[in-house]
Amino acid sequence: MNIKLKRLDVSEIDTFQEKMHESFKSAVINRFDVEDAAPIPPKYDIAHTIKDTNTEAWAIMLDKTPVGGAVIRRPATNTEKRYSLELLFIFNEHVNKKLGYSAWLAIEKQYPNAEIWETHTPYFERRNIHFYINKCGFKVVEFYCEHHREEHDLTNEFKDINTSGFFRFEKRMTSEN
Question: How far apart are CA 100 and CA 86, in angstroms?
């Protein structure tokens, strides 16, 4: 499978957001058996994240076809080795084709200096939890909920569907990765 990363062009951001919302929205609709769901994460969060000087937005390409996207937060300084996977998604029409893991491997290859990776996912996203733990080698290191919140309260994004709770994952890179 020929998965590569292509830096997202400014002209592609709107399409990127739409496709990401479709992907995340379908997960919520399927999990909670609702007819519709608000954009997750909200558009202003995506725009803010993409425009941050420490983030890089990528189109995930299968040969020459975009099949998903990712946003990576680099460390603030060159001496830090902690990177954050802010967003990773595969377009709905390409789900269940084993592209996610290939995309993750391309991300690891793009950032060889990373010693620690961090990401988050809502507790109800069983596919994501399986993917990060069983496929990519992440470990659950924290669970955010009404009893344990973080500065940027991720649980607020899902208030409309009466769910709260996010896992924080970490992956420590070794020579074996």
Answer: 15
